[in-house]
Amino acid sequence: MAAETQGSRTPALAQAPTKHDETLNAESIVLQRLLARRSVIPAGGVYDRVSAAVLAANSRAAETELRAARLRAAAASKNWLPTIGPRISLNSLGDLISQIVVDAVLFDNGRKKNERAFAKADVEVAAVALAEDTNDRVATALDLYLSAEMGRAQVAIHRGTLKDMQHFEWVMSERVKGGVSDRSDLHVIEAKLSEIRAAIAAAEEASATAMAELNAMAITPLGGLRGIAPLQVTGSAAQPLAVARAEAEKGRDIAQARIARAGQLPSVGAQATIGENGAAGITVGGPGLGLGTPARLQALQAAEEAASRKVAQADEDARRTLRRLEGEAVAAARQASEARALTSTSKKNLDLFQAQYKAGQRQVMDVVRVYESFAARQDSEVQLRFEALRLAVELARVQGVLADGDQI
Length: 408
Description:
The protein is built from ten helices and four strands. The protein has helices spanning 2-7, 19-27, 29-36, 46-56, 61-76, 111-177, 183-217, 241-263, 293-358, 364-399; strands at 83-90, 96-107, 267-275, 279-285.
């Protein structure tokens, strides 16, 4: 049902309700890159089901802003045409004079052109915001699902530990009754049992909380989903969304600076009035040139350079983030593999101690301590395995590849 609901929506990035939108999609490199993104989430898997459910329930406020920006751009694309409006005046004799006024810009130092460029860049910024919003939502949902799964995995480990530790408690209790062991050892085991029960309760609560929050985001309950899978993603999957936003904002900032520059210079227009006492003529306007004009123009030029440098800074920051996440993901995967090997070694050591205990060569507390070490290794392995998955999700979110661009 979630997938059907999501599919019933028209993707906002790919929407082209007018010819101008089709042209904008074809001309904008930013929009083309956004549309070309492909999700790293395997189709039909558990992550895909989580993604579909939360996107189907998305209020998509950013989509509304994108539609508004598209309409503004469509309106700006016609700003070069003459404007027509009425003029009604009352003369000294008390007569009403009505006219139709036609205004046309002949030369405006590129103001109209840059207004169109600003509107186009505004669409690009809104499109990047929508992509960020969508990827952030999917990343949040996957993080909650992984938290719920990790909690369930920890509960399973702790329950196994509790069962075995209860057996040790029974053995020690019998030894205390028989006067073979000291009651202090029994108290130690009882304390460990209390710690295990507390750990089970904490893991269950964390899992339930994460799943409740995930269900609040989804269009259908996801409590029945189980299982995890590796997420194959590298640091070169796509251009980071932060860089795409910086490029879109650069175009908008430059257009805004050039609009302001045009406002500092004279402009030429033509005006005609149709009706009683109709006339036509050329008008020259502008704020006038003063001693501070050169400095104002230099300041606007500096604003254009600052916009370009922001893109370079965003690119550097994004590359640093990607390298860090890649390194942390590789390290977490390696540590999880090492933890798995240590868990196997601890299990062999535990089996050896249990065999020696049965042969009368080890005390119960010796086995308990080794078993504690084995349980700790299991828990560490689980945490590292899920940490590697979370880092993979974050790496995909930064690059905006948690959802297909043409389906957003």
